[in-house]
Structures are given as structure tokens and as C-alpha cells.
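This section describes the prediction task in plain terms. A model, or a person checking by hand, is given the sequence of a single protein chain and must write out its three-dimensional structure as a string of C-alpha cells. No templates, partner chains or ligands are provided. The sample shown here is typical of the held-out split.
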Amino acid sequence: MPIFPIIRDDNGNPLIGRGCEIVTKRFSGIDTSGQPIALGIDVKECVIHIEGDVEVARFTGTVSGSEQVRITQDGLTLAPLPVVKEAGEPIVTVAAPSGSIDLSVIGWR
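The expected answer:
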């Protein structure tokens, strides 16, 4: 049985049955110069996970074209970010403080 997030409206009321379209994408080798982060579908909310070394889960979104993402025990998961972005439009630009980083993005509409 699949597990779907429960999307809420602006007043905090659950919108049951919505938000089951999840897109996932992984970005590797982001350096200090930065990289724009964009997804292949319109999204209303996303979660960014900066990966660490100890992997605890891998999964792929329900939307066609989703890539397998990694969740790590020692990584950093940022708070869910409400956004309104069209497909291909950058959500944020991410840069590594030094060296390079990998991150996984999970978005839903």
C-alpha cells in the first residue's frame, strides 16, 4: 500500500486525495559556484535533503521521469518549502560551502 503525503490548504485543513503526484530528482556534484534546482512538473511544495554519507532509504516519485533519491541519516533535511513554480523553473540555487555536495529534492503538486 503506497504512502501519500497529506497536503493542507492555507488554513491548515487537510486536502485528502491531493498531493499524490510526487516528483523526485537527485543532483550530484554541486560545487561552490552554485546550481539552479528545478523539477520537471509544476510544484506547490518541495523538500530539499542535503545528503550525508549514511544512506537509510532510496525511493522514486510517482510522476513519470522521477529519479531515485537518497535519504541519509547524517544529512540535512530542510523544512518543507511552499512554492509555486512551473515545470523547469528554478526553485532555488544551491551552492556548496566548500568542495561539493549531493542533494535530493522531493516535490509535489
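For orientation: The chain has one domain: 22-108.
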